[in-house]
Design a protein that fits this description.
1507 residues; alpha+beta; 44 helices; six-stranded mixed sheet; single chain; disordered C terminus; 14-stranded mixed sheet
Length: 1507
């Protein structure tokens, strides 16, 4: 401790100690309780301070060293601190000047250091509490220094700061001595171990202390270990040597010290007014001045701790009280930290760069991976600063920035280690790092500074610079090989090298790498054609050397004929004949060279000197005897090879390129070169020696000449050519060759007289091939050309062609041929299809089967409407050949627009004037068929819209007669047709086509606002005449049925309520009055014409009532209801027959019918105010006085009618639906009735007229689309892929109890077209009432039921078809011929695939019965009622069921009953009874009568199949 000069008044040492004790409250009177309490607090604080201040117990040594360095020493001594451990006693000796009284007082106090007044000098101790750390290991401390001798006892009251006089331990003259008595808890041996680890660096930054001696007991008794640490400074005070001597062994550490004066703010309280502080960096060195790479401590004069630096940092850091951590947020410390960077940079500039050893390794001191948050700044800052300094040398020894330097590239150097790119030519001023640096050892550090490796781009840029200054030629071959070795490392040549002139040429120039494909290596012994402008690489490049390999990779052609041959092939522009011949000879001479390109790409010259490919030219070589030469067989347009090619090698010339062992031997003789040359031109160049084949067909030059050639010579030539033609001709090419004409006949229509065809020829006189040896097998190739050589498909095709050409029309023979072709279709499908495509060989009936004609495939359809006459329909002539014509030849059904086209042709043919009756009937038939199509579709095809512009309707025009008119030029006739027939043009259909047959067409969107209904266009004014008589019975009847009428209207309403206008009409029914009058006269008006006519019924409508006038002219005994119901039906929008039923049937019957058809009562929450009005008792109001009726009959004796008080005028258009508007919705599937007149309705129902069209082909369709075809009714709707598939069967897989919904046709105007309904409306409209049916009705139900089952099975089974329908009723379905033969039931099906067995019995039984699946005989029982109704079974059917019963084992046949119920409804159902005889036997069926069977109540199973 520093001791200032003693003041004049010096106390004696003992007195000073007593004064201090007295000041602490000892040795005086009894202390007061307050003093005692204060003393206790201070004791506890001191104890806490001594034990908690430092983490390490050995820290007290640092405090002693700190104090020793702060002491004053004599000039003649080396400042030394000695430490000795003796058992439990530790002794410190320091050769300082000794304690002063101030020092004694300071050590007996807390925070009263005597060094505070000297902080500007940067003393180590500043806390005043460091000495107290001795009490971490000692209980007693005895001090003797100069005249003072006292001790501290930690266990005494305030013992750590209260001294006690002591003379127990002797003093040492000239030394200050401390005796530390260790606490009982401490172990002297442990303390000794720690003391032995003391580092010499403790003395490194001390100002005075230069030696430290430590003596500790050794393991051996009475022995000790002595450790001495010395510090010696160099002459310039920048080199320090620390020596540690232990057991006579010395170890020295050397440090280079770099000092830097840091500038501070002077505002730090602990460094008040201090504006500068010294930073010292110590860099450890070896004896040879090389860096020592060990982590060093950070010092604040004494070591603090290690932060990861390779050099020691000494700075006057302000630390924590424990002196073990730097205060990181302190501004003083932050300033010192920044100066550490400055100190390091100063070391680099002033010490390292010029140091003979450190100049190449100094950067190893750079900090790396400093984790401490405070000091990591130093690492990053040093690196960033150095990167911008010229601190590293290049090869010439000049210091430069690291970022300019490149490592000397080992991968870009020659064998001697010299860079391939001289530093002079480096890109952008780059330099190589000096080789003095150990780049391998220090690569990572140098990279951090910014030195980088030489990259491929650097290398290529250097090469480019060398290229620009033209120094490649000055480089050695070894240099060029080394560069090539580098470039060969790339998987492909870099783009940059392609632009460098790296290729040495024969003429001394250098070419860029991109042009390498233009050059070749100098060939050895190869004669290169002169016209190719080939350039070669300079000679001297060794084969397979790096340069050779690299140039090859660039594309330089190796020294072989292959690249020259490619050059020949790629040569463009005109060439002389001689040059072209030379090219060909080059290829021929090197024909055995490996990898030669194909010679077929050679450009040759024809006789006129024009360039051509080999396959474009002919070479006329000698052929077979009797064969034609090519010049004779081909047209003049054929091009032949230039004759100079033939003279290139004279006959029997030796092949210079052939050696004896390579000569070609043919037939045992040595071949001459000329022959081989010609063969090579043929086989490898592709010159034709037979007619050319292009894309599988013979070229035109042959076909142009073929028809003029002699037949026998042509056939001999074809036989000679065939081996070369066959591999190249396609099937289409063979057919085209077969189509050539030979003596006026096609080749493929000829026969070869051999085998069975000899007899056929004699019988039919067939055209034969003119050859003398037809049996020779060499003529077999003619079969490929369509010539009939045996009884096969070609034979029958030719036979058909022969019959057509001869005009033969034997339909039976023709049909037999068609059957043969059908059976042999697989033999030669292409020949058959092509024949029907090209020739008119379809013999069909036309003109109502009155005539047979031969037609082409384009002139026929397989199936089409009867009205179509523009094209023939094959199915009418050959109904059983659908498989051949429809499926195999692909002859389609007629599309819907075919009828539109036919109408257009007829209209164009008859633009004006009268038309014959036949045209009228034909047009009407077409219109009916079109209407059927529209009715079966959800929307009108776009192609039908053209009908609006076609004059396609037969119209009776007054004064002109019968003609064709467009839609807007006529009226639809109605009940007033006879009245206005002489005034306006009316549609005039033949009797066979009623107006209802084309209603769907007229009401379609095609004729919207164009069709005019005569009755709707007529304005009428009715006047009742004569006496008016109230028909009270009819009045009450209509009034009483008002609620039923309201239910009908509500049922047909599309909304949840009855429309207001209908409510108004229904409300007026409460006052409806039916009045009979003698007559009703109506004035009818249309356009400018008026006519008067009697009327049967007239309505007068007031605001709140209806009055119905009925003329007595209706006739005695006739019902008034049809006429009234017809008029009411128009007003209410309800079908007349439904109204008629509601009026005429008993109430109970009406209720049953309504319930059966789902006509519900009006909802309870429905607005019934208008209904309550109409259900009140009706009080008839008669306009004129009337006579009450005596009978319900409207036929009263005539009497003069009274003059009416008001005239009645009714315009039907106000209430009656027009054609073209949507018809009123009908019940279920019931078609809407005609709205024209009652007579029209009856006409449509008459058996004679209705039957005539009931088998309309359109009613068998499931769906029709714009691109659909007319389907034959004998096939399933699934024939055409264009049709919409039927909806799936029930998801529940109830496969044997299937509803008809899954197979119903699509809805048409909200109606369902019932399968098998044959176009007839189902009547009565409410369905069957289980009343006995007549024979015609029974047949109809049976037909519909069988047709339904047919569709079900057709959908379920893949191999089911018309042939399986074995019932006589099938003839009733259009397109089905009568069944011929014998069958047990309505359907017969052999289940060869197990499909039906799997559906009906399940997969387990189907698997068990594999290979024994039965043949099913299915009898259909149909009813309009429910399935549980009894059905009839005949005695013959019962006997069949008995004979085919299963009994105990599965037989080959099984009898099945299919019960179809609800026939005619939207949802028919089918229940299957398997083996009905067994079902009777086990009770699943039971007798209901002697001829009826009924299912028992427990016979149903979950699958819906009764077995």
């Amino acid at each position: 401790m520093l001791r200032p000069a003693p003041p004049p008044h010096i106390l004696s040492p003992s007195q000073l100690i007593r004064d201090i004790r007295a000041a602490h409250g000892f040795d005086n009177d009894q202390p007061t309780p307050a003093v005692i309490e204060l003393r206790g607090k201070l004791e506890r604080a001191l104890d806490r301070l001594s034990s908690d201040l430092y983490n390490k117990k050995t820290h007290f040594l640092l405090e002693f060293i700190q104090n020793a360095d702060d002491n004053n020493y004599g000039d003649d001594v080396i400042p030394t601190l000695e430490l000795r451990v003796e058992d439990r006693l530790v002794v410190f000796d320091c050769n300082e000047l000794g304690f002063s009284a101030a020092n004694v007082k300071a050590i007996c106090d807390i925070g009263a250091s005597t060094k505070t007044s000297e902080k500007t000098r940067g003393f180590i101790g500043e806390k005043g509490i460091g000495f107290k750390s001795v009490f971490t290991v000692a209980d007693e401390v005895h001090i003797s220094s100069g005249p003072y001798s006292f001790h501290f006892d930690k266990n005494a009251p305030l013992g750590m700061i209260t001294p006690a006089l002591d003379s127990d331990y002797p003093s040492r003259r000239g030394w200050t001595r401390f005796h530390l008595r260790l606490a009982p808890s401490e172990n002297g041996n442990d303390l000794s171990i720690h003391l032995r680890d003391v580092r010499p660096t403790l003395l490194l930054f001390l100002r005075k202390l230069r030696a430290l001696s430590i003596t500790t007991p050794d393991a051996a008794p009475h022995s000790a270990i002595g450790i001495k640490v010395k510090r010696s400074d160099g002459p310039e005070d920048d080199m320090v040597t620390l020596e540690r001597i232990e057991r006579e062994k010395s170890k020295k550490e050397r440090y280079m010290l770099v000092k830097h004066l840091a500038k501070t703010s002077g505002q730090e309280p602990a460094r008040e007014n201090v504006t500068e502080s010294e930073i010292v960096l110590a860099f450890p060195l070896t004896e040879t001045q090389e860096p020592v790479m060990e982590t060093q401590d950070v010092h604040a004069f004494l070591p603090l701790r290690c932060y990861g630096f390779n050099f020691i940092i000494q700075a006057d850091f302000i630390t924590s009280a424990s002196r073990e951590d730097i205060l990181t947020q302190n501004t003083w410390n932050l300033a010192l930290r920044g100066s550490v960077v400055d100190a390091f940079l100063l070391a680099v500039r002033q010490r390292f760069l010029d140091h003979p050893m450190l100049r190449n390794v100094w950067f190893r001191y750079l900090p790396e991976s400093i984790a401490d948050r405070f000091f990591c700044y130093v690492e990053h800052k040093i690196i960033s600063e150095l990167q911008n300094m010229q601190i590293l040398r290049s090869t010439d020894g000049t210091y430069t920035h690291p970022s300019r330097l490149l490592f000397r590239p080992t991968s870009f150097c020659d064998d001697s280690g010299e860079p391939l790119i001289p530093e002079t030519y480096l890109f952008q001023g780059k330099l190589y790092l000096s080789p003095d640096y150990n780049a391998h050892r220090d690569e990572k550090i140098l990279r951090r500074l910014g030195v980088r490796e030489m990259t491929d781009n650097d290398f290529l840029a250097g090469l480019s610079t060398m290229d620009q200054v033209h120094v490649f030629g000055a480089q050695s071959d070894a240099w060029h090989d080394a560069v090539a070795m580098v470039l060969l490392r790339y998987p492909r040549p870099p783009v940059g090298v392609l632009m460098i002139r790296i290729l040495p040429l024969r003429d001394g120039r250098w070419a860029p790498g991109a042009l390498a494909p233009n050059f070749t290596f100098p060939p050895t012994g190869v004669s290169v054609p002169d016209d190719l402008d080939l350039q070669s690489i300079a000679p001297g490049i060794t084969l397979f050397s790096p340069r050779y390999q690299f140039f090859t990779r660039l594309g330089v052609t190796p020294s072989n004929p292959v690249p020259i041959a490619k050059k020949i092939l790629s040569a463009s522009g005109p060439r002389t004949v001689a040059a072209r011949v030379t090219h060909a000879r080059f290829f021929f001479d090197y024909r055995r060279e490996a990898n030669m390109p194909p010679a077929v790409r050679l450009r040759l010259v024809d006789e006129r000197g024009l360039s051509a490919q080999g396959d474009e030219l002919y070479l006329d070589l000698p052929g077979a005897d009797g064969a034609l030469s090519l010049r004779d067989a081909l047209s003049p347009s054929a091009r032949f090879l230039h004759p100079d090619y033939l003279n290139a090698y004279p006959e029997f010339a030796a092949d210079e390129t052939d050696e004896d062992e390579d000569d070609i031997i043919e037939n045992g003789f040595q071949a001459d070169t000329r022959t081989e040359w010609l063969n090579w031109l043929r086989d490898f160049v592709g010159i034709n020696v037979v007619p050319r084949v292009l894309n599988g067909h013979l070229a035109s030059e042959f076909f142009d000449r073929a028809s003029h050639l002699d037949g026998p010579q042509l056939f001999i030539s074809l036989r000679a050519w065939w081996p070369r033609l066959e591999p190249r001709l396609t099937e289409a090419g063979e057919r085209a060759l077969g189509a050539i004409s030979v003596a006026g006949r096609r080749l493929d229509t000829l026969y070869l007289r051999r085998g069975a065809l000899v007899a056929a020829d004699e019988a039919v006189t067939l055209p034969c091939v003119p050859v003398d040896d037809p049996e020779d097998r060499s003529w077999d190739f003619l079969a490929r050309l369509g010539v009939a050589t045996r009884l096969n498909a070609s034979f029958f095709v030719n036979k058909l062609l022969h019959m057509q050409s001869m005009g033969e029309k034997d339909s039976e023979s023709v049909e037999d041929i068609y059957k043969q072709l059908d059976a042999r279709f697989h033999e030669d499908e292409a020949v058959i299809k092509n024949a029907f495509k090209m020739y008119p060989i379809i013999l069909v009936f036309v003109n109502n089967e009155a005539e047979r004609v031969w037609l082409r495939k384009t002139d026929v359809y397989w199936y089409g409407p009867p009205s179509m006459t523009s094209k023939a329909v094959i199915s009418r002539s050959y109904p059983h050949l659908i498989n051949f014509f429809f499926y195999k030849l692909g002859i389609t059904n007629a599309p819907p627009y075919a009828l539109v086209d036919e109408l257009r042709m007829i209209a164009d043919k008859h633009p004006s004037g009268r038309i014959p009756q036949g045209v009228r009937e034909h047009v009407a038939d077409i219109l009916a068929d079109i209407s059927d199509i529209i009715e079966s579709m959800s929307s009108v095809p776009h192609s039908f819209e053209a009908l609006a512009e076609i004059a396609a309707f037969p119209v009776l025009v007054p004064g002109q007669g019968l003609g064709l008119r467009a839609a807007e030029e006529f009226y639809i006739p109605g009940k007033y047709a006879d009245v206005f027939r002489k005034h306006v043009a009316l549609l005039d259909l033949p009797d066979s086509i009623p107006i209802t047959r084309i209603r769907s067409l007229l009401q379609s969107s095609i004729f919207k606002d164009k069709i005019r209904n005569l009755d709707l266009c007529v304005t009428k004014r009715s006047v009742p005449g004569g006496k008016r008589v109230l028909d009270s019975h009819a009045t009450d009847l209509y009034s009483s049925r008002a609620e039923y009428l309201a239910r009908l209207v509500y049922h047909h309403s599309n909304s949840s309520d009855i429309p207001p206008e209908k409510k108004e009409i229904l409300a007026k029914l409460r006052k409806i009055t039916v009045i009979g009058v003698p007559s009703i006269t109506t004035t009818l008006s249309i356009e400018s014409f008026q006519e008067k006519t009697p009327e049967y019924v007239a309505f007068e409508e007031a605001n709140d009532k209806f009055t119905v006038f009925v003329s007595n002219a209706l006739g005695l005994g006739k019902s008034i209801h049809p006429s009234i119901c017809t008029s009411l039906g128009h007003l209410l929008g309800v079908d007349m027959m439904l109204l008629f039923t509601c009026i005429t049937q008993p109430v109970d019957t009406i209720n049953d019918l309504f319930e059966f058809n789902g006509i519900e009562k009006l909802p309870d929450d429905h607005d019934r105010s208008w209904l309550q009005t109409i259900t009140q008792p009706n009080v008839p109001v008669v306009p004129e006085p009337v006579v009450p009726e005596k009978s319900p009959s409207p036929a009263l004796p005539p009497s003069p009618p009274p003059r009416p008080s008001t005239a009645l005028s009714v315009n039907d258009e106000d209430h009656f639906p027009q054609l073209g508007k949507e018809a009123p919705k009908a019940l279920r599937h019931t078609p809407s009735l005609s709205s024209t007149s009652t007579s029209t309705f009856h006409q449509s129902q008459s058996p004679s007229k209705g039957r005539q069209r009931q088998q309309s082909w359109a009613h068998t369709f499931v769906a029709v689309s714009e691109h659909s075809q007319f389907l034959p009714p004998s096939r399933s709707p699934f024939i055409s892929g264009n049709l919409q598939p039927l909806p799936p069967i029930n998801n529940a897989r109830d496969t044997n109890r299937l509803t008809g919904t899954a197979l119903m046709e699509p809805s048409v105007n909200d109606q369902q077209v019932v399968p098998g309904a044959l176009g007839m409306p189902v009547w009565p409209p409410f369905g069957n009432f289980n009343a006995p049916m007549g024979t015609e009705e029974t047949d109809m139900v049976g037909i519909m039921g069988e047709h339904f089952v047919y569709k079900l099975l057709l959908r379920m089974l893949t191999d089911f078809g018309p042939a399986n329908w074995t019932s006589e009723l099938r003839n009733s379905i259009p397109g089905f011929a009568p069944f011929q033969g014998h069958a047990y039931a309505d359907f017969t099906y052999s289940d060869t695939q197990g499909q039906l067995t799997r559906e009906w019995f399940g997969p387990e039984k189907a698997t068990a019965w594999h290979g024994r699946w039965p043949r099913y005989h299915i009898e259909v029982k149909s009813t309009r009622g429910e399935e549980n109704e009894p059905f009839h079974i005949s005695r013959h059917q019962m006997a069949t069921a008995f004979a085919l019963s299963e009994r105990t084992h599965l037989g080959p046949d099984m009898y099945v009953i299919a019960r179809v119920s609800r026939v005619g409804s939207p949802q028919p159902q089918c229940m299957v009874y398997l083996d009905p005889h067994r079902a009777l036997f086990v009770g699943r069926l039971q007798y209901a009568a002697d001829v009826f069977l009924q299912r028992s109540t427990d016979s149903r199973v979950s699958m819906g199949v009764v077995t």
